[in-house]
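Hi X.,

You mentioned you wanted examples for the new student's onboarding notes, showing what a folding record looks like when two proteins sit in one file. Here is a clean example. The first protein comes first, with its sequence line followed by its structure tokens.
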Amino acid sequence: MRRSGAWVLSAGWSLLACASPSLAGEKLTFAERTEIVLGLMAEYATVKVALPRSKKALEVTAAGKHDKEKWAEAMQQNGPAGRVGDLVQITKVGIEGDRLLFEINYGMKGRRRWWHNVEVGTSTSGRMAPIAQDQNSNAPSGTMLALVFDKQLPPLKAAEIKKMLQPILDFEKHSATELYTDTLPKEFQEAIKAKKVLVGMDREMVLLAKGRPENKLRETKDGVETEDWIFGKPPGTITFVTFEGDKVIRVKDMYAGAQ
């Protein structure tokens, strides 16, 4: 993804110039601090764990662990800053004694700037388009993250920091579907890869495994409503996937000849 190198350099040098030695970490050299800031500033990542909005930085350990209860509480109080699969951007990097601070999508105050609302058009096309294509527009808001170490911040490279944040933020290009699939039990992951349906799957998992069905049939028996998704056409194997509520309760394959 493209970003202005001049802007990144300017923002990075401004941040480093304002940081006092006590806040920048005495064990880090100026060159090391520069590499961290410029290596992470304006970087995009895909959310792997739902991020709540929070005025206080959400802490992540160097091992990639976070306090699920505190994050859930922040989510309940402030709502989401990023959902699983959302694309977010690091908009500011801070260096303190035992931690790195990351502003996500301009922090809790919001991610948009005035120019994101400006549109331009031409007299020939008559169509309007925003002058800034906001690449992280699918994330609802912003927040703060803190990568916390047991002792004073050790010498690190930006690539190492990205690996530490990997359980929370994926800096590689992956689709939301891939991230969702990775959260499923292994047996469901393997079935989806093999394009098979298992009892216990929900509708989204079935769609990932088989795609959209050719037909759907609903039936109510003894007060229980079920729905059959039918995959395949004759001649060939027809798969009937039966749902009760949102869960698969039965999978049946039948061979159908030519009509």
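Then the second protein repeats the pattern, sequence line and then tokens:
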Amino acid sequence: MIEQLTIDGNTITYDLTGDGPLVVLAHGMGDSRHSYRFVAPALAAAGYRVANVDIRGCGDSSLGWDGYSRTDIAGDLVAVVGHLGGPTVIVGQSISGGAATIAAAQAPELISGLVELAPFTRKQSVPLGALLRAGRYRSGSLRLMRAMLFGSLSAWTGYLDLAYPEKPSDWPAELARIETKLSEPGRMKAFQAMTRTSPVDAGMQLAHVSCPVLVVQGSLDPDWADPREEGEKIIADLPAGVGELVVLDGVGHYPHAQSPDEVIALVLPFLARALPRA
């Protein structure tokens, strides 16, 4: 069931499937809710009501928003949960991992757990030594910079080639879908606006998150010279005992699409703990 929620004259589009406790899925920049195409049906089949969201400016959600920061996206996610009725667990990838952190800190009565997949949740730096040593990190950073500065679709698809060390079986069709969507008027501009936001706002909220948090990193994620170290820093900035880190070997920036079975096997036990059934 495709639904829309109007927020300040703009629209957030989401799929709603299944019955049971609510789980909200939120994707990364330059992507759409279709990135959870393998995960959402499995969660619904396991007895959850799954809201798979196109974040602002992406997928079938509208353009023309005043901002594209993690704080902005967090407000949309909280609005979706308030509309559908919480509590919920938010599964957020990349920029939406940071947004989910802010949402949990600001609306603890609605959010009982977070799963953060390859999240940008802390202030980032570009260590020159790592750029020289780590080829995947260097290549990914250069392609991301070209996409950010010039709105280059070829740079973005080149980044995706690195970010998926192993491609899903439907990758040619999925890549074509991504290219078609980002070629729509205004979509690349929204993508560029997201790339220029900083995760500082999310990092400032880590200490205020009280619900359990599962951070999942891929060992071959080109966004960091050392993905495990980034995950460990997120856990360290959370209150003691709140966070747990899992690193998936051979996985890139999109664990939910590259290795959905591994992600589902991690998420279902987490949901059972963080989102108990009535």
